[in-house]
Specification:
Blueprint: E1 4-6, H1 12-15, H2 22-36, E2 40-42, E3 48-49, E4 59-61, H3 81-93, E5 97-102, E6 112-115, E7 122-126, H4 167-184, E8 188-191, H5 199-207, E9 210-212, E10 215-217, E11 220-223, H6 229-240, E12 247-250, H7 252-263, H8 278-281, E13 286-289, H9 304-313, E14 317-321, H10 322-327, H11 339-349, E15 354-360, E16 363-368, E17 377-382, E18 389-394, E19 401-408, E20 418-419, E21 425-430, E22 434-440
Parallel strand pairs: 1-2, 1-14, 2-5, 5-8, 8-11, 11-12, 12-13, 13-14
Antiparallel strand pairs: 3-4, 6-7, 9-10, 15-16, 16-17, 17-22, 18-21, 19-20, 19-22
Binding site for Ca(2+) 1: 105
Active site: 192, 224
InterPro entries: A-amylase_thermo, Alpha-amylase_C_pro, GH, GH13_cat_dom, Glyco_hydro_b
Length: 443
Amino acid sequence: MAVMMQAFYWDAPQKENKRGEWWNYLNSKIPELSAAGIDTMWLPPISKAASPDSPGYDPYDYFDLGDFDQKGAIKTLYGNSAELKQLLASMREKHIGAIADMVINHNSGADEEEVNPLDGQKRWTKFNPKSGRFPRDWNCFHPSRYEEAIIEGEEFAGFPHLCHRNPSVYKHMFDYARMIIEELGFDGFRFDFVKGFGAWMIGILAKYKYERNGEEVRPFVVGEYWSGPEDIDNWLERVRAVTEGQIAAFDFPLRYKLKDMCDTPNYDLRNLTDDGSVVSKRPFNAVTFVENHDMGGNEIVNDKILAYSFILVNEGYPCIFWYDYYNLELARPLTPNGIDALIDAHHRYAGGEACILHADPDLYIMQRGGTEGQPGLIYVLNNLGDQWSGTSIKTKWHNQKFKPLAWSGHDEAHPDERTTNENGEAEFPAPPRGYCIYVPIFE
């Protein structure tokens, strides 16, 4: 499985003094991200929003990528279309896929208020974008002549919500998706706030047969359904019923487990063994993550690298957060103690089925069984804060030598090599409040 990076955080261009220059800044980072093993980058919303400093989750003109003087600026917060295209070209050159952030539920920044004749209420629903594409009025939003009912959970920040059953809205959403895949060269979609619109809309945009350079493109699709495991599972079933593609969801339930693991004193590691996550039930439908741009005020505070170790050795599609990697300096390049070493372990060894070999309140040991290209590993997670801890386990490998490849904790002394006996047994320890990844040595 590949490794994704969310290549922004909330207000990143302002906080890093790069208003209108984020695409250029990302472009400068492509060589080192490629070398680190990042396969895919999730980019922030590309369209002109309601204000110059908006991160883009209140779209105004879907087809203005930073080239029209409207809403207080020409560029978006991130740049213009030429800079975006250059970034995407650099990513393609390094074989890094691009995921577009699709905000197709709500709009903001309307030019006029108007009365909706269906209920007599006045709303900001008159849009006259300078791109000349997708002008809107009240009939493009709920309530509309095409669909009066508002989906439960649809309301968001008081913004008007698009009625996708209006043929004009439906057509322009298709045009927008085609521009993203076929013209700009993105490889997939991240759909924002999917609980706010019908799964059928995801389905039709996902299974359309996009073409680029004469070849069909099947976009990767992941939805943000911020809820518990049962709700996410039900949403995945609804989407599966209307598409032929493999649709994924962000694993919010696992993320909250990982926060508890890092921030709750005396957390019981056996909680990591149950099925209360997306990845435990649907490993091929789960995008696992530790942090994202919406977690302000709910960030993981302590030993966040433990959470990254868990998602990068486990099943699922792991996503790394830019702020953690760069601003919190968890990459730790050229050491065995950071995200870069975990990415290396993920790519070279973390193949095959995940099998929990031991779990108690303070110690968790998991085996990846390996494939032809990824020989597998042993992952040890130690929740004790004052001592190294491990136990003898029975692995699938008999008389096999293992070396520590990546580790971190409150003591970062170099772990020793381990060798299993004829029964596949050996003791594998990890540092206090830390982890260690052991990989087989084939001589």
